[in-house]
Amino acid sequence: MAELTRTKSIEPAPSRPAWLTRAKLEPVFVVITLAAIVLSLVAEWGGWPSQWISALGVVAYLAGGFYGVQEGLESLRQREINIDLLMILAAIGAALVGEWRDGAVLLFLFSLSNVLQDYAIGRSRAAIRSLFALYPEEAHVQRGEQVVNVPIAEIQVGETVLIHPGERIPVDGVIVSGQTTVDQSTITGESMPVEKATGDKVFAGTLNQNGAIDVRVTQHASQSTLARIIQMVEEAQNRKAPSQRFLDDFEQYYALLVIGASALVLVVPWLLLGHSFHDSFYRSMVLLVVPSP
């Protein structure tokens, strides 16, 4: 971490209203897709007009495939084929052979998996935000004959920071004056406050409880124990497991294999073996739908 700031990588500033972001809309689309599928079943059992059932199918496809189509088109612009494109093609294929509900279920399951994944990632980001919340914005620094409020990123090694009872300790350092008890469970996991006096070390992000202390800074804010913990959490979040890296690499080959095999099942029996186009097309669409993950 070159400088301790509230990093924008944790939660990018939205370029549109918050309620229009994907994180907000995709769960709504998942619910709409499921509702349309269920209502279509009720409509069939209840003998509703076929136009209503078709309209529910259109709603399910639009809601379930909204973001999948965007991801698929983006992959094509990058001259790649990903799982999103495979799912969209499979859903279209299911609709073309008269099994639109199967395609809608595929879109529902796929979009639901994306929502669950985003939820898990969001929890990791919330954990990082909670670590940043342990830092005060400013600290009271002794500079000459004055005590001034200084942003923690501007505090230099060797300066003396004055910390009042009830304040978070902003830097790693050594107590040069005063004594207190410190709740340092955020760093060490100790459940009980620790007695601190002159000469003892204190850590950024811990809570000074009942005494005023002066602390000489021994580490820049970007190199404090808490900053290193935050850095490790961020790196762990961004690091992919070997199995995930393998699947990311394999995804393109798998999608190409399924699409290519479906094309062969359509073309070879129809053009070379004399089978009807309808039968060949049906088998091709079944092959496209069945392997969709």
Please provide a written account of the structure.
Strand 1 and strand 2 form a beta hairpin. The protein has a six-stranded antiparallel beta sheet, with no helix packed on it. Strands 6-5-8 form a three-stranded antiparallel beta sheet, with no helix packed on it. Mean pLDDT is about 85; it is low at about 1-15. About 55% of the residues lie in helices and about 15% in strands. It is elongated and about 95 Å long. The protein has helices at about 20-45, 50-75, 85-95, 100-130, 185-190, 225-240, 240-270, 275-290, and strands at about 140-145, 145-150, 160-165, 175, 180-185, 195, 200, 205-210, 215.
Helix and strand run: HHHHEEEEEHEEEEHHH
| Net shape | elongated
Number of helices: 8
Strand order of the largest sheet: 2-1-3-9-4-7
Sheet-strand content, in percent, reads: 5-15%
Given helix and strand content, the structural type is alpha+beta
What would you report as the Rg, rounded to the nearest angstrom?
29 Å
Whole-number total of structural domains: 2
What is the CA-CA span between the terminal residues? Answer: 38 Å
Report the biggest beta sheet as strand number plus sense, adding barrel if it closes: 6 strands, antiparallel
- Mean pLDDT across the residues is 84
Question: What portion of residues is helical?
Answer: 55-70%
- Poorly predicted sequence stretches spanning 5 or more consecutive residues: 1-14
Number of E-state strands: 9
